[in-house]
Amino acid sequence: MKFTLSWLKAPLDTDADAQTVADKLTSIGLEVKSIEDAGARLKDFTVAYVVSAEKHPNADKLKLCMVDTGAAEPVQVVCGAPNAHSGMKAVFAKPGTIIPVSGAELKIGTIRGVESRGMLCSLRELMLGEDHDGIIELPADAKVGEPAAKALGLNDPVIDINLTPNRGDATSVYGIARDLAAAGLGRLREGDLSPVKGAFASPIRTALDFPAGSESAAPMFAGRLIRGVKNGPSPKWLQDWLKAVGLRPISALVDVTNFLSLDRGRPLHVFDAAKIKGNLRARFATDGEEVVALDGKTYTLDSEMVVIADDEAARGIGGVMGGEDSACTEATTDVFVESALFDPVRIARAGRKLGINSDARYRFERGVDPEFVLPGLELATKMILNFCGGEPSEIVVAGRVPDWRRTISFDTARVKSLGGIDVPKAEIADILKRLGFTVEAGETMKVVPPSWRGDVAGSADLVEEVVRIHGLDKVPSEPLPRTSVVARTAISPAQRRLRVAKRALAARGFHETINFSFIPRAQAALFGGGDDARQVENPIAADLDAMRPSVLPSLLAAAQRNQARGFSDMMLAEVGAQFQSGMPEAQSNVAAGIRVGVGARGWSKSTHPADAFDAKADMLGVLEAAMGASMTAPVKPGAAAWYHPGRSGTLALRPKVIAYFGEIHPKVLAAFDIKGSAAAFEIFLDAIPEPKSKGKARGPFAPSPYQPVERDFAFLVDTKVSGEDVVKAARGADRALIEKIDVFDVYEGKGMPEGKKSLAISVRLQPKDKTLTDAEIDVLAQKIVDAVTKATGGTLRS
Amino acid sequence: MSDIERLERDLLAAIADARDETALETIRVGTLGKKGSISERLKTLGSMTPDERKTQGPLINGLRDRVAEAIASRKSALGDAALDAKLVSERVDVTLPARPENQGTIHPVSQVLDEITAIFADLGFSIADGPDVEFDDYNFTKLNIPPDHPARQMHDTFYIAKQADGSQHVLRTHTSPVQVRTMLKQKPPIRIISPGRTYRVDSDATHSPMFHQYEGLVIDETASLGNLKWVLEEFYKAFFEVDKVELRARPSYFPFTEPSVEWDLRCDRSVPGKIVFGTGHDWLELAGSGMVNPRVLEMCGIDPEKYQGFAFGGGLDRLAMLKYGIPDIRPFFESDLRWLRHYGFAALDIPTLDGGLSR
């Protein structure tokens, strides 16, 4: 909401400057976004008279000007503008002035051998426009030596406030003035709202035509005809104000409606009465009904929207935008002025569906003052008579002002208990009265909000009114009592897992990233997503349209971008959500990481391309950190489709998949344009079982006093036999004695029979109650060999 | 010079001359070995008269002891010399780089999340979370933003496609729906912080379509605007690690709070690219807040006659930017290795109140 200081001072009697006004506005909740004070910004620029403009002696395109700046002697200025000519009034900058467009200080210069002691400025140099074709030519009546801003009509500061959507009452300059006056800045001038006597009965009647039960769509429709007007430009002061806030002056009739919309928050519409067939009524549109609106566009309406129609067709979209074919023009002689009330929700919905953001919609959807339908019409009448002449009819009214009065029982102790500040009861009453509320004192106050404050519904709203006018900054801070002397744990076990997973990843060398939850649909499709249900309906960009089904595509895309920047190797991770559907709660937390490339190169060791075992180590390391326990579940070969089918694994605790790991499928790598190999893992943190509650104490520490024994076995097995098969079989030989089994060598290839490989394990035996004899060890060794042979068909290599 | 003296002189000279352990061992066997020259002499002691033994015993035994000691000492010297020579030959170039290890980092948003968790835990809050895809009802309606309310325009909402069951959901525009979820399932007193990803259709230098918010909610029988101010003061003081802060309150509007307040923090931005809190002449908008609207309490099943409370919220990314001097929000989500290394945190830099939130 924009307005100028002089506009504000029409209804507000105050000497305050723009900054004082702005500070007060912000402190009462009408936050000032900006003050554009061209007068202050351009205070060093003055009006000058170009006495003469001759050709520069040493340059064809330059002119040598003698300029009267109001000083005793004319000043010599070299100017390159083609439009510089003698006898013009121009904007002058003396040496030492900061030129806005460059931010540089103007110096006395010598141009092609001639001294220049100042500058004649263009709009662009003053940052008032883009026009750089020539210097500004001021009106001939501009006074030499006066501020140029005044001559440019820019000495009126423009204040822009960020209006919150609850404050329909402040969508007007008058409403803002009213709030300021209540807050003690200035005195409000109500203006002359007296009715204008009609000279004849309006030939155009208004009517409300709604089915029973829907009357609230438009409760009131008033208007009047003014005949014999002469439409032309509106007065300069009105044009200046409208231009200052970004509106284009059109004609006196239209400018009056725009002015009252901004000045009083009262949207109006003017019809060229000659273009109206019969009478006007507000009714629902029919589905598919079309209206060509004032913006020249054709809108197709539906039966939820209200139109203003004559006997022939809809002539405007009620409360949103008028129609083009009944608009006023320079030729208009009889004008019908409409002032009506519409249901805010319907206006909002219509505006949103049609994509129209008009000043009328802005006000109606925030709620206009229902009592101002007729006063607004009277004000418009006076201004039109004043600017355009003519003769007004009597007012015609359909419907009536809906009942807006409601009484709030206000326990004034709420100001302290909710607002945290003591305000005397008398001041509470006084503040509310200044804001236009009716206050009936008593044990609990009976408060009736004014007609323009439809947003005030209960005690909490009244507390807000009191506190904001009394001064929010006066609220003292008050310690919040501690709930426990020593703070308690603040995070859940699930949140702890996320936190630990991040730290574990970073400790392993991964860079934690955070990527958008939406990714290109084509990428989502590679990871089991990309379906309609997970599409974003209104994506910020066409390639950020699918909720990601996995965290990996985000990481692969990030890896590709980094490779494009010249980093071939990297470890990237993210702990975040993946989305199983487009429903709330259908998401789960994943810790995912990728290693891309050959690993860090160094002088001391050979490097290897990232492989499934890197990913497995990463996965187990992070998983066990997040669990706070070791993971004993076995790994099954194979994982989701985006992994290399022969070089990936799944860790599951039935029925839940806990993690995938492995090398990324070459087709996926190609789709992401990743160079080199990539090994990845995904840990589904929400699938990790909750730790069994077993108290804080650890079990007793009871190391065996007997010597452990290690024995190595090398088996010749079929290549398809897995390490896990051999280890599992060996462990079964004696679960009590065998403490640990490691696979320490795997070999296939040269020297091995076709289809066979050597797999060597190291078995650690830990007796609990006596030292093992050689004979006992031999017996157990044989059991291990037998078990492996039985389970895998492997034989012991001699 | 006696026979023994001469022998001793020769032996000690030979020991001193021994070039290596083999030569020394030959000397040892030749003297102290079973048939060695000294051993042979010791054997003669048995056949001597007591008087002879009295004079010869100490002489021969003394010889044996001195030679044995000389051999031991020479052996040790030879060993040291050999080790020294070996060590010299084993020299490496220690100026070569250390074996490469990957140094990972924690994202600034995660770090700041841990920081604010530490602070709010001490103030008695616990952390609550909720889904990114949210019911319209929780994101808007139960927060007193009915359909077609102009406040919805403030939110620039992302919508998920219509689901098979005809329902349609939103990407949450704030983490306030977590407050709704908490109130629906938990009776007061409530003190929670809800951090997480939030989404708005907005993208420029200061806006990202995805960003992070943290919001606080306190519901009990007495929580007031004064308590809210205190919590924010204490929070910012702890977070920015300064001795004092000054907050400025501005009335504002959020449909879910009444009264609504926005807070600015006093700071000094006179040096470009640098912000100092607690002093200066500038104000930085940091948080939106207010007393929870009684209508919201009611819609969430909490008796507004008995309970009241406040809510507040701000941007997590923004906190990280302000504290750690990160100028632009967009790179937070671009995963540029150089940015991650530059602004990331070490794995073991875990923020705590006792050990310090940051170094």
Write structural notes for this entry:
With 798 residues, chain A is of the alpha+beta class. Helices cover 26% and strands 26% of the residues of chain A. Chain A is built from 20 helices and 42 strands. A 7-stranded mixed beta sheet of chain A has the order 30-33-34-38-37-36-35, with helices on both faces. In chain A, α8 runs antiparallel to α9, α12 (425-434) packs across α13 and α14 (493-508) runs antiparallel to α17. Chain A starts with a strand and ends with a strand. Chain B has 359 residues and is of the alpha+beta class. Chain B has helices spanning 3-17, 21-32, 37-44, 50-89, 108-122, 136-139, 176-185, 225-240, 294-299, 316-324, 337-343; strands spanning 126-127, 133-134, 170-171, 190-199, 210-220, 247-254, 257-268, 276-277, 282-292, 308-315. In chain B, strands 1, 4, 5, 6, 7, 8, 9 and 10 form an 8-stranded mixed beta sheet that branches. Chain B has a two-stranded antiparallel sheet with strand order 2-3. In chain B, α1 packs parallel to α4 (50-89) and α3 (37-44) packs antiparallel against α4 (50-89). Chain B is rod-shaped. The chains are: A alpha+beta (798), B alpha+beta (359). At the A-B interface, α8, α11, α13, α14 and β30 of A face α5, β1, β2, β4 and α8 of B.
